[in-house]
Design goal:
Number of strands: 14
Strand order of the largest sheet: 2-1-3-4-6
Helix content: 25-40%
Order of helices and strands: HEEHEEEEEEEEHEHHEEHEH
Distance between the termini: 18 Å
Strand content: 25-35%
Largest sheet: 5 strands, antiparallel
Number of domains: 2
Structural class: alpha+beta
Length: 228
Amino acid sequence: MDEFMNPSDESRLAEPRGQPNIAVPSTLQCSKADPIVMIVTCFELDQALHKAELNCTSRRPIIVSLYAHGHRLGIGLGMRISFVSPQRCKPTPGPKLITVGDTRTKRGAVFFFPGWRRTEIPRRNVLLMTKAREILREFFETGVRATTAAWKVLGAEALETRWGALSNEPSVSKRFKITGTGKVLFRGAGRRHLLQGKSPKRRRSLRKASVLGPTDVYRIKQNLPFSH
């Protein structure tokens, strides 16, 4: 998951000029286009989360970022299930963590940064929205991760151990091509054999590449990370 704030913006909030001893206020940010919301109390935090949730739907849930106590916490909004992902930003960057979810959850979830790419959260990392809100409030009040939740380190090393090195899938790259505009092209079946039974017009039409429908585009692009 990418951060919304630039490092320069974050340092400006974390270290006010000429006022090193003043506590930095907590902030909530939904996207680069939206203004930063200052958060002082839990009531203001609940109000800001509720307002952000009104701008999304269950078909396009979003991720918002809370900056508090030198950490950035991402939380998913817009569904009955969610997750929390904290990471220390100050004084030195720390590892990114994510919740270990409830085993009773039947499926994972997909969340979106507004205007950004989609982020898939596996079933093992999602939990009920009410639980995620409680974890966020507890950290906002105390500055300490909730001990009632289990946490897992989320990093490149863990992903590489689980999935191996990131590369294009050869079986997919030889069958599909991604254009500069993001469309996925493929060759239709029917030009390998039994051509004597096909009319010249049909054989000519089979030469052209077809555009893949939107249902399968995401899965193909996931297998071709270096082609788009």
